[in-house]
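Record format v2
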Amino acid sequence: MASGAAMLIFSFLDFAGKQSSWQRPWFPIATLMPLYGVVMAVQIALARFAGVKMPARVAGFSWEQIHLALGLMAGLMAVGWLVTDDYSRNFGLWIEVIGAFALAVGACMLQRERNTGALGG
Amino acid sequence: MKNTKLTPANLVIMAGAVIAFVGSFLAFEKFSPVGYRAKSWNAWSTHFFIIATLPALIALAMGVMAAVESFAQGTTLPSRVLGFSLNQVYFVLGFQATIMMAAWAVVDYLGFRNGVGLYLMLFGAIACLVGAIMRVAQGAPAR
């Protein structure tokens, strides 16, 4: 949740050059990472703090699987942005990359916490 | 074709993977200012590697998985990966490739235009996602 919130806030800072990830030319390819973070954070916040009853599965996926898929894909994109060499990386990019890795780690921790068995736990 | 497990869904995935991978070597973005020679970059060019190459690599991974499932005699893919069934892995990868290519199609570089390679990659990624959905619809074993 913390990663998702931080990623959303810092996504409005300069991503590369003088533009944030919500401005041309980075929108929406660079906006995917914070959006994944927001989806994960909102689901956890609604389920845990607002007591909203969520469907147990969405399109055949449990919520733990959705978190793991989004976290891993955000991490993959973070690696992509780290390796791509074409621009001056700014503060917003670094926060998004760190946040994306944190999402992946958080999703893995969630698997262990809820004993899904996905990570052999 | 005998003794193969080539299903329509796997065929669609393999075709999509080939289209996306070939497309990644064609023009991804083009720049053609008036009075100057036009220039183009593919998904492997310095400006775009590897953030623009990822969807092609994801599609390629899906194609290889489908090919192994279809043709490799005596070789089986693991039934579950990180708690995901094989059908779910296909769906997640197809979804990720498609959403990244959809995002690239919308990206607006000043003065740049989308190239044919970008559209081929988008089409290939969508085909991979459709193939993944077909696997579920056709009742492919959710191994």
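The radius of gyration of chain B is 17 Å.
Chain B has four helices and five strands.
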